[in-house]
Amino acid sequence: MGYDLHVHTTASDGRLTPDEVIEEAVSLRLEGLAITDHDTVLGLEPARRYIAENRVPLDLIPGIEMNTDVDRYDVHVLGYFIDYHNDQLIHRLLELREARRERTLKMVRKLNGMGLNIKADRVSELARGGLIGRPHIAQALVEKNYVFSIPEAFEKLISRGKPGYVPRYKFLPEEAIRLIKGAGGVPVLAHPGLIGNDQLLEQLLPLGFEGIEVYYPEHSEAEIRKYHRLARENALLVTGGSDYHGTPRVYHDELGGAEATREQVDLLRQRALEHKNKNIGQEGR
Length: 285
Fold this sequence. Notes:
By secondary structure, this protein is an alpha/beta fold. The protein folds into two domains: 3-93 and 172-283, TIM Barrel, CATH 3.20.20.140; 100-158, DNA polymerase, domain 1 (Orthogonal Bundle). The protein has helices at 18-27, 44-54, 87-113, 120-126, 134-143, 150-158, 173-182, 192-195, 198-204, 221-233, 248-251, 262-283; strands spanning 3-7, 32-35, 59-70, 73-80, 186-189, 211-215, 237-240. Helix 1 links the parallel strand 1 and strand 2.
């Protein structure tokens, strides 16, 4: 029994719908989970409604994973216990959604210019109504037999520095942190081991992060010890999650593959309550 605090659905680039993710969590006897789709909250209300209507014994934490950049490094910011109806957050997410769509069109055109005949409409279909992104372009490339797998598509064509890559919209971690706190949530640095630059971590943590994802499937034991130390030294909350996408052949993920404890979740919950009370106090001035 534990919590998986890093889970994706079809609202972004996961394979399972919110309902299916909930059922999977129940079958694994998880105590709770956080749905943290990339740059969208569209999976949260369906999940909440499914739990309520079916009286599912699962603690659902409303979350998000925001994709940001610092120089040439991808920095992902997790937000927990957010108010996913917050107007400022929703407005910015709509802007990011449109930026993702424009980027996808540019990448498709670039790949077409290389003789790789994929269609933007098909990429959109593969997103299944969720947030469109590079994984869906990769799926389209696999369908056309231009590559054998989604990882190969990234490695050869659509990763940073590869011929089909188009830079992402400019979105900084500072703004993501501000939006999450403004929505009453707790900002947490996602999978620091994947950033690949410990010096950058020292610059990132003072920006307003309140937690760090220590437990992650791709973190080694040495990295887990290192991030525990960073958490202690910077008074950060500790979290853990599987980064589940429901596509084990691609991400090698397993729901519940990295868990947080109830005590860790309670500390997140308490911090979020402090943010919400602070926001209410500011609104009343």
